[in-house]
Amino acid sequence: MAVPETTRLMLELEGTVEENLNRHLTVAKEWMPHEYVPWDEGRNFADLGGEAWDPEQSRVSPIARTSLEVNLLTEDNLPSYHREIERAFGRDGAWGTWVHRWTAEEGRHGICIRDYLLVTRAVDPVELERMRMETMQAGYDSGDKELLNVFAYVSFQELATRISHRNTGKYTQDPLCEKLLARVAMDENLHMLFYRNLVQASLELSPDAMMRAITDEVVQFQMPGAVIPSFVRKAALIAKAGIYDLRIHHDEVIWPLLRQWKIFELEGLGEVGEKARDELDQFLKALDTQASRFEERRAAAEARAAARQA
């Protein structure tokens, strides 16, 4: 009886997973979410005799609030992500140990970001809670991705999330918020390295199938926060502010990983892999053009706004 391809891959990658799990546990530094929250700024809200939230209480701009909300709501959907990655990796051996370690580390991101935002009154807590309820009820569905597609997607997604957190922190111009999100981004980077290395190993084991998966995930990529209410509008505002846009996605997310994997230098691909690589090349050229056009439109809009204020 033939062994299913996914089972074969998991067996052959078990050593790689264990090696990278051990590396992660060695380099990951323990940190405490409560140490990043200025608790002395906290006070009661209206129902406990304090003040209801007002935009004037926030020390960050409206667009910074939007980006902070999107980042937190993305983290909030962790139960769905855990379900999806456990479905793909299982609970056994190093695979299962990684799933639970990853989930535990991701869990503290939502804890500390929410505590910070509520204590500092950076965002509307009522709107935030309503969006959290709606986002988590929508959940997240990966579409039953194949194992190699999961490797590719989470590699790009973790890097994208790292950059989104880091840039959001800088955009707030709040040193405490920037410190917090920089710490969260460090976790995301370690997660990206784990998945990136699985892709590298898979390119050696099943180059054609892995190439196909990389192309599919680049072409079809969506941030996990796409289920957030009004995500398209919010993503447009975030892009307009330069926090996360097509140029960043092209230059700082997709290409660094493709270069690491030496995708366009890889030899020995079969027909399936070569076809996928050609598709990827064409898509990247189109995305680069699209990113340049967006930058031009944004620059023109900024110039018009500056002229009106002159």
Automatic annotation (TrEMBL):
One of its GO terms (molecular function) is stearoyl-[ACP] desaturase activity. InterPro entries: Fatty_acid_desaturase-2, Ferritin-like_SF, RNR-like. Keywords: Fatty acid biosynthesis, Fatty acid metabolism, Iron, Lipid biosynthesis, Lipid metabolism, Metal-binding, Oxidoreductase. Gene3D superfamilies: Ribonucleotide Reductase, subunit A. Pfam families: FA_desaturase_2. It comes from the Bacteria. The keyword Acyltransferase does not apply. Its EC number is 1.14.19.2. Its cofactor is Fe(2+). Belongs to the fatty acid desaturase type 2 family. Homodimer. This is Acyl-[acyl-carrier-protein] desaturase. It comes from Amycolatopsis roodepoortensis.
